[in-house]
Structure to design on (205 residues):
């Protein structure tokens, strides 16, 4: 249980990358008052949490219906996470395109897009929650732990958004890139382990 909780926490932490979110959040809220920034951050985190939990609860029945095995899901999730990890290690992780960034800066409300989706609850987060719900195997205590780790990471993300200006003043762009690269290395290791576990299980089947 403890190892499962730690793995889930680290996976979501490096996928969401709260520190890396800070400069993106500042960029798309540059012309907004602090009170509005705080409201946007709070609502986006709440929405992202709801989406991740719903996807975690509903995703596995969907894949079961499609005939996708848990081990295949591990491999697919691991490959996707490794791609994200590689981008993070190069500090070249782009969560939105230039057009999406422009649309976000012009939008009246950025709570849903691009902050909740895809910055907080993106493909990596959805893949991760599917993999860990599969590993939980329907055990209620493991699912509770999993979603508790999701909530914990989102709370950290909310704090990072609230303190984004201060984080950038302290860390600067170089500091943010260093942390993102370290997170990328951790995520790459977790991704390789997922692929290895899935491939070994399929080979033994």
């Amino acid at each position: 249980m403890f190892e499962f909780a730690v793995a889930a926490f680290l996976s979501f932490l490096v996928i969401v990358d709260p520190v890396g979110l800070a400069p993106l959040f500042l960029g798309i809220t540059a012309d907004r008052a602090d009170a509005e920034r705080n409201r946007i951050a709070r609502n986006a985190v709440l929405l992202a949490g709801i989406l991740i939990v719903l996807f975690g609860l509903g995703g596995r029945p969907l894949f079961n219906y499609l005939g996708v095995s848990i081990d295949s899901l591990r491999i697919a999730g691991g490959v996707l996470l490794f791609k994200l990890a590689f981008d993070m290690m190069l500090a070249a992780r782009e969560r939105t395109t230039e057009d999406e960034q422009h649309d976000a800066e012009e939008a009246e409300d950025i709570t849903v897009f691009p902050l909740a989706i895809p910055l907080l609850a993106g493909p990596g987060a959805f893949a991760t929650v599917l993999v860990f719900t599969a590993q939980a195997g329907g055990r209620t205590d493991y699912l509770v732990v999993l979603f508790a780790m999701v909530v914990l990471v989102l709370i950290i993300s909310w704090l990072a958004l609230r303190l984004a200006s201060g984080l950038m003043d302290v860390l600067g762009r170089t500091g943010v890139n260093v942390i993102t690269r370290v997170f990328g290395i951790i995520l790459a290791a977790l991704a390789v382990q997922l692929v290895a576990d899935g491939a070994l299980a399929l080979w033994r089947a």
